TrEMBL record:
Keyword DNA-binding annotated: yes
UniProt GO BP: regulation of DNA-templated transcription
Every HTH LytTR-type domain range: 130-228
UniProt-recorded Gene Ontology molecular function terms: phosphorelay response regulator activity; transcription cis-regulatory region binding
Record has Phosphoprotein as a keyword: yes
Protein name: Response regulator transcription factor
Domain Response regulatory residues, every copy: 4-115
Species of the source: Sphingobacterium alkalisoli
GO cellular component: cytosol; protein-DNA complex
Alphabetical keyword list: DNA-binding, Phosphoprotein
Length: 233
């Protein structure tokens, strides 16, 4: 399966590097390149693309402004020399964040991640459960039972209807296991199952007896998620 992609980059050398890397990956097809985000945004209104390589600091429309204005939902891989945009980028559900200068190996890992996500979605490969590593065993967890996930130092606590499970995962790794339409991050330390929300009041979510915070940095992305999946008008 070919992945049709575009690159948005205003630095000629950086764009050349992306072009060369794309050429070396057989399943990537570079359809177009842009040196400004506004032209790319207009292009995407009439053309369907699977993957976008996006710089952040550009003249005119910035990469972040591009993400805010984007109507379609291609996979996004940010390519930036600045790491301070990473957290904000993940609020837009980006696939990966490549910090310049990056190697071909790091690039390949990133596009493989995009490929696997796109392929699995297209083939509707989805189960109703996942397995989490707990000490020396793999624990089966029904997706429907998960209420929310809480970050605790190096571990994540999966709070379920009848049990809680501690596992050594990052939030990004956990979100790769979960269907994006059902789970959304609300805080640096929390992910919630949207179907389990009882009510939302200001910057707090109630799920049963538990209160989960919505931080200012995640609130906009959380509300966009609810609207995107027709959970809020």
């Amino acid at each position: 399966m070919k992945i049709n992609c575009i690159a948005i980059e205003d630095e000629p050398l950086a764009l050349l590097k992306i072009t060369e890397f794309v050429r070396d990956v057989k399943y990537l097809n570079l359809v177009h390149v842009f040196d400004n985000a506004l032209e790319a945004l207009l292009y995407l209104k009439d053309n369907t693309i699977d993957l976008v390589f996006l710089d952040i600091q550009m003249k005119g429309l910035s990469g972040m402004a591009f993400l805010e204005a984007l109507q379609s939902k291609p996979k996004i891989i940010i390519t930036s020399a600045y790491d301070e945009y990473a957290l904000k980028g993940y609020e837009f559900d980006i696939t990966d964040y490549l910090l310049k200068p990056f190697t071909f190996e790091r690039f390949l890992k990133s596009v493989d991640k995009a490929y696997n996500t796109l392929y699995n979605r297209e083939k509707n490969i989805r189960t109703d459960y996942i397995f989490l590593k707990v000490e020396n065993r793999l624990e089966k967890v029904e997706l429907e039972s998960i209420l929310f996930i809480k970050g605790m130092s190096d571990y994540l606590q999966f709070v379920c209807a009848e049990k809680s499970i501690m596992t050594l995962l990052t939030f990004n790794e956990a979100l790769e296991l979960l269907p994006a339409e059902n789970f959304q991050r609300t805080h640096l330390s929390y992910v919630v199952a949207t179907s389990k929300i009882d009510n939302i009041e200001r910057n707090r979510i109630r799920i049963g007896k538990d209160t989960i915070p919505i931080s200012d940095s995640y609130k906009e992305a959380f509300m966009k998620h609810l609207k995107q999946y027709k959970l809020l008008l």
